[in-house]
Write a structure and sequence with these properties.
Layout: H1 2-6, H2 42-45, H3 50-55, H4 69-74, H5 80-92, E1 98-105, E2 109-110, H6 114-121, E3 129-132, E4 138-139, E5 146-151, H7 152-155, H8 159-182, E6 188-190, H9 201-211, E7 215-216, H10 219-224, H11 235-241, H12 244-254, E8 262-264, H13 271-282, E9 288-291, H14 302-314, E10 321-325, H15 330-339, E11 343-346, H16 348-351, E12 358-365, E13 368-369, E14 386-387
Parallel strand pairs: 6-7, 6-11, 8-9, 9-10, 10-11
Antiparallel strand pairs: 1-5, 1-12, 2-4, 3-5, 3-14, 12-13
Helix pairs in contact: 6-8, 8-9, 8-15, 12-13, 13-14, 14-15
The structure holds ligand PCP.
Length: 389
Amino acid sequence: MAAEATGKMQPGYGGTGEAMAGETELAGGGGDAAGQVVRSGPERTGPRTVKDVVSYSVDPQRVLFSATPDEIVAGWTTDVYFVKTREILERLGLADTPVVAEIFPRREGVLAGVEECRRLLMQVPAELRVWALAEGETFSPREVVMRIEGPYAAFGIYETALLGILASSSGWATAARIVKEAAGGKPVYSFGARHVHPAVAPVLERAAIVGGADGAACIMAAKLAGQEPVGTVPHALFLIVGDSVETAKAYHAIMPPTEPRTILVDTFKDEAEESLRVAEALGEALQGVRLDTPSERGGVTPELVREVRYRLDQAGYRHVKIFISGGLTPERIRLLAEAGADAFGVGSFISAAPPIDMTMDVKEVAGKPIAKRGRLPGKQENPRLKRII
Ligand code: PCP
């Protein structure tokens, strides 16, 4: 069903299993759009045998070491033991053995990554039936969050990728949910892209939005989530222009009206003083001030927020919101929100969230309940699961 639905086939699955060691250069210069050599054979189609794995080499000139979506779909990021498993099953004539596999987490959290898993499994050229909890739903330890039914050899090599997608995405989504709850309904934006490899930055910040973040600074992540990216300008612009008010005026003059008029006020002088200066300069147009006082200066404190709020109110700038970023944790967000902060930019608390370990177990083989010792044989019913493929 999956293959018919997408018209796509996983290259290599259902083929001969013969490794083709040669490289084929494409016409027109011998490279793809990224300037990399495009190969035929298992490099392109994915590993079906250990021989394929042995003959595979990674282009030493590739620009980034991260796997491309095509390489992930081909199976090159999988653990080698799944390739061996498939090779042996094929030799034994057991590749089409129908199985039920279930994925469960080790601890509670908020689920994300289901949509990527669904899209990956849609590449499988076999009849798969897949159920999962919805992204954004909470799960309990050991609750089944995804069930896959179909011929094991068709999807087994994706175990590594599926678990990795769910584990890291759910870790980030869970952290985002925690900070969002700490903010008590006030907006929280994910600024975590800078802390991870750019290949996964869109995954991270999309997961943060799934978990409850109101938006993200990373352009690709926001677009994936159907949003526009959130953010104004970093300290670099203030340092180059040389004055906060001049920077604020330039931002206001040059940026389209759709962009938020939220100005950093911690670059050169006291935050309360700078807040009043930019408020006087931009007047009604100023929507917010951002306090990002570095940890070297003690970070943003509740006392500082109270003072900035008081001085802005006293000067008639009640409409100006206070946006806080830099080293925020749930505890700090709670205190700062109480002190009058209106919105938060959170990076490291979300990006550094530990993955939530996921495990995939075969629970049924050829219609018979089975499991390794310590696990319960057969499907573990979960009425919250919804069919996704
Ligand atoms: C903010 C701040 C933190 C960034 C956000 C992420 O950067 O300096 O380092 O927050 P985190 O501490 O929770 O990870 P910007 O002011 O946007 O940029 P820059 O510091 O480069 O001026």
